[in-house]
Write a structure and sequence with these properties.
514 residues, 24 helices, mainly alpha
């Protein structure tokens, strides 16, 4: 494969120094985590409040779901702008502006007076939240250097894996014991702290002296294409599946716009919103494919597992969130280890192990019954967490280690787009499969067996249909296992040597942090 114009070459006759994470880099990583944790928590924290919101605003689930969908669509729309914004204004300005917009959207969402205003303010919140993760990744990448990418990514990866676990727990507690408005107001003190820490610690990082003009044509192609794809996938889970004509039309429109963007990017090269020539680098292209399936595995599990606890076992939102905690603990255990192994030996030696752990931790859910022990499922979730800790951030860090500094900001935004798209595909696909499995086994299930309908089944009735529900979930988990196992193909193609062995220390390192 031809060498990418973004690929850096190793300095002749020497290897990069092998440094651990110094105190300044660790502090910067924690500052970035303080900001990103808000957006990641908010992708899941609102889900447990949908029933309460529908009751307070006297509206149905078809309208209420846009409180979540609008937020996700806004995040997906703004991600492609991140690379250009960082090049134009500098990472620190983009970071602080994103936090400000997110906090403003949070405050307005908490003060919403009707469902229309809440959906609008959630979109505003998503526009700020969408830039936080890719901007934080770019800042840390340029500050830490390629030879320390695995370890620094293990820090920023913690909220990416703990967020889906802590979000439902925190949201369930706030809704049950405080007030639903506090699921938004809780972001205000965190956002204020994140802004203060960013002012103190995030390096200013000069913007490009001759930044490229904003790619307006790309802006009119890629973000709308991404929105159409996500919207089409979301409708597939609530309408006639992927065979529904409307769903096919939305997906076809999104694919068409994305295809036109690829052609446009090949002509515009570095002036493009996202330069698709990044995929000429084999390591980046391989890791990007793996990141897609990581998103599928992670977000699909965040749909199925709490839904199983709530519908098949009758647990409340707070209890379901607590039962997910072992997965977060497993991820927190494995991520530091995975980062060190990635830096020293390459992602190709740790990611396959993570995939084995992911599959092994999912098998008990595929064999689940109506009374399967919570202790067994908790142990399985811990193993799954170990698998995610050995898979997600090593994969993402390996994608950036062979790129030149100038390509890092746009490459990080590209990876986040791919991660979200993978999550959307996994969520929509498994939602359709689960709904059909429940409908086949329980034809009288409300709403075709959807989450909203099954949540209203009385406990006495649920006990009678619990075996059929467990069987439906088990069948769907087998599909999830198959989607996870696909990861092994790109994983075996990832680098099997550490970044320190072939990194150019001057290619990605940023100036010292004051």
């Amino acid at each position: 494969m031809a060498e990418s114009p973004f690929t850096k070459t190793a300095p002749p006759g020497g290897a990069a120094r092998d440094e651990g994470l110094d105190r300044q880099i660790i502090v910067l990583g924690l500052v970035i985590v303080c900001g990103t944790v808000m957006a990641i928590l908010d992708t899941t924290i609102v889900n447990v409040a949908l029933e309460t919101l529908g009751r307070d605003f006297d509206t149905g689930l078809s309208t209420i779901q846009w409180v979540v969908t609008g937020y996700l669509l806004a995040m997906g729309t703004v991600i492609p702008l991140t690379g250009w914004a960082i090049d134009r204004f500098g990472g620190r300005r983009v970071w602080m502006t994103s936090i400000t917009l997110f906090v403003l959207g949070s405050a307005l969402s908490g003060a919403a007076w009707n469902i229309e205003s809440l959906i609008f303010f959630r979109v505003l919140q998503g526009l700020g939240g969408g830039m936080l993760m890719p901007t934080g990744m770019a800042i840390l990448t340029m500050a830490a250097g390629a030879h320390r990418m695995g370890r620094i990514m293990s820090i920023i990866g913690v909220p990416m894996l703990l967020g889906p676990v802590l979000g439902p727990v925190l949201g369930g507690w706030l809704v049950e014991d405080v007030d639903w408005r506090w699921i938004f107001f809780v972001n205000l003190p965190v956002g204020a702290a994140a802004l203060a820490l960013a002012w103190w610690r995030v390096p200013s990082g000069p913007a490009e002296r001759t930044p490229s003009a904003l790619d307006w044509r790309g802006l009119l192609l890629l973000p709308p294409g991404f929105v159409l794809l996500i919207y089409g996938l979301s409708t597939a889970s609530s309408h006639g599946g992927f065979g529904d004509p409307a769903t096919i039309a939305w997906l076809a429109g999104g694919v068409a716009l994305a295809g036109l963007f690829v052609l446009h990017s090949l002509r515009s090269r570095e002036r493009s919103l996202i330069d698709v020539r990044l995929f000429a680098d084999r390591t980046f292209a391989t890791a990007a494919g793996a990141v897609f399936f990581v998103g599928v595995a992670l977000m699909a599990s965040m749909l199925l597992i709490p839904l199983y606890y709530q519908t098949a076992r009758g647990e409340g939102a707070l209890a379901a969130g607590l039962l997910l905690a072992p997965q977060g603990l497993g991820a927190a255990t494995a991520m530091p280890i995975g980062g060190v192994i990635t830096d020293k030996f390459g992602a190709g030696r740790i990611v396959p192990i993570g995939i084995v752990l992911l599959v092994a931790g999912t098998i008990p859910f595929a064999l689940v019954e109506a009374d399967t022990s919570y202790w067994l499922l908790g142990a399985a979730l811990y193993v799954r967490g170990l698998g995610f800790g050995c898979t997600m951030m090593p994969t993402m860090s390996s994608a950036l280690t062979t790129l030149r500094r100038a390509a890092v900001s746009r490459a990080s935004s590209t990876l986040n787009i791919i991660l979200q798209l993978g999550g959307a595909v996994g969520t929509a696909l498994l939602a359709v499969i689960l709904s059909r499995q429940i409908s086949d086994r329980i034809p009288q299930a409300p709403d075709g067996g959807g989450a909203g309908g099954m949540g209203q089944v009385p406990d006495r009735v649920r006990e009678q249909i619990a075996p059929k529900l467990a069987d439906a979930f088990g069948h769907t988990f087998w599909v999830a296992i198959a989607l996870t196992a696909v990861l092994i193909v790109p994983a075996l193609m990832l680098p099997r040597q550490g970044a320190r062995d072939n990194a150019d220390p001057d290619a990605v390192d940023a100036p010292p942090i004051a």
